[in-house]
Each structure stands twice: as structure tokens, then as C-alpha cells.
Amino acid sequence: MLKGNKMNSHTKKRLDSSIRFDPRTMKVFLDSGILQLTTHLGRKKYKIKVPDYFQKYFAWEVKSLNLGINKKHCLVKVVVEEKIPEQSRCSEVLGIDLGMRNFAALSDGQLIPSTEINRVKRKYAHLRKELQSKGTRSAKKKLQALAGRERRFMSGWNHSLTKYLASLPYGAFAVEDLKGIRKGRKGKVFNRKRSNWAYAQFQSYLQYKAEEQGKFVLLIDPRFTSQQCKNCLHIAKENRKGKTFHCQECKYISDADTNASKNISRRGAKIFFEQAVVNQPYISAYENKVVGV
Ligand SMILES: [Zn+2]
Predict the structure, then answer these.
(1) 241 alpha carbon to ligand 1 midpoint, in Å?
(2) pTM of the predicted model, to two decimals?
(3) CA-wise closest residue to 199 among 176, 226, 174, 227
(4) Which of 106, 158, 231, 260 has its CA 20 to 30 A from that of 244?
(5) Based on the number of CB atoms within 10 Å of its own CB, is 265 exposed (0-12), middle (13-18) or buried (19 or more)?
(6) Structure confidence at residue 263 (pLDDT)
(7) Which residues of the chain have pLDDT under 50?
(8) Cα separation of 157 and 81, whole Å?
(9) Domains of the chain (ranges plus CATH)?
């Protein structure tokens, strides 16, 4: 960089421009906070402050480093890299149905109720109503703080749920594609799902947590997942009555959300096996035809 400045061959760097180092010119030990840099005065050793939450990157490979100045502080940006583990050998697909009564229903039969979410939502709605009726400036400030707290609660919930799901012994997770639907009937329930930001957040958290473990997230065609029988694939509006699913054709009875999650799992598995060679972690495809339509 110094040479470049002298030769005037590149854009001139200012005195406070950041400097990039690669493994030939630096060495960093994140766990002990030791940094070695090659400078124009030779190799120098420094002590850096490494935040606790960097711990999970201690074992990763350091690729490059950026040294910069920000008002009073010297900042070191460390780029670390880790190979995504080989595609998980498990080929089973877990179907996940997001809904109102159960935040998530899993195709293994587990139900994750939204009782706690609803309780917190009700609490905040109540507080909001009280503050809104006051209308003072401090009430407005409190309202903003309230919104932030509610958001953080939901985000924490999504983090812990997706962490748990990603750790389950499945090779892929299938969820309804809430964005990609182009044609066909969408329905009221589906529209409600699509506009719920908590579901979108759930999917994006699940995607990166699954990816970290070499697993996949499959986006499936959401049409008729709750009206189709997971047993005989018959589709009828009458199959579903409230929270129970009762197939008019084969008489199969099940929890409605569990039945939907099993359809999601089956559609996901179809994509998973058809695309044997997959090199992108987010896979989206639609069944060519929906049986019975
Ligand atoms: Zn049936």
C-alpha cells in the first residue's frame, strides 16, 4: 500500500484508510486475542479485545483481516471461513406447517402451540391500547419501546425454535413457499400466512441454521396442503373441519395441522429425491400436478 502511494499507480490512500491484510502478512489468535501484523517497521504483535460471542468462530479459518480507524478506536475486522459440512447423509424430510393455533406442526406428530405467543401478543395489545388512549408524548415513546420489546420476543422465539428444529436428525426441512405462488387459488388462510412477518422470519432463520449443518430447506407448493389427505391424497374442502382432519374418501382421521405437515413433508421429499444433485441450500419447485384437481 505504501509503495502504491509512492508510485501513484493507484488511487491515493488517505492516512486513515483501512488496510487489508491476508494470511501472509498477519496472524490472529482469536482465543488469546493476539494479533501479529507485518508493518513497514517489521513484524509487530498486538493485543486485541475479542467479544465473547465470537467464541463460536475460534475454530474457523482466518482468511483476511481489515484494520481501520473509527474516531477513537482501532478496529480489526476478521474474515473467517468454515466449510459447510458435507450434505447430511440423512435423507428424511421433516415437514413443517405454520399456523395460527399451532405455531408449527411437524410431520413427526409434534405440535408447537402458539399459546405463549398469543399470551404475549395479548399483553402488548392491552398495554398499547391503554397508552394510545393517553396520547401524550411520553406515551408515544413508551409505545415505541413496547413495539421493540414485542419484536425481540418474537425473534428470540424464532431463534430457539429453529435452532431446535435444525438439530433434529433430518436431512432437509420442507416448508410452504409463502412467496413464490404464481397462479391458482390462494385463499384467505394462505394470505394471512403470507403477510405474517413472524413466519418469514422463521423461514429465514431456519434456512441459515439448517445450512450451517449441511441440511436443506425445501420450499413446496402450498396449494391444498390442508385439504389433502396424507393417506390417499384425496383433496376436498370437506376433509377439514376445524382442528380435525377427516378424509371423506378413506376415512382417515388426524389432527388437521399434523395432516398438513405430512403433506408438506411428502411434497418436500419428492423435490429432495428428484434433485439428487443439489448444490444450493434453498430449493424450490412445484409438483407438476396436484392429485385430484
Ligand atoms: Zn384419505
Answers:
(1) 14
(2) 0.65
(3) 176
(4) 158
(5) buried
(6) 97
(7) 277-281, 285-293
(8) 28
(9) 2-81 (no CATH), 93-113+169-284 (3.30.420)
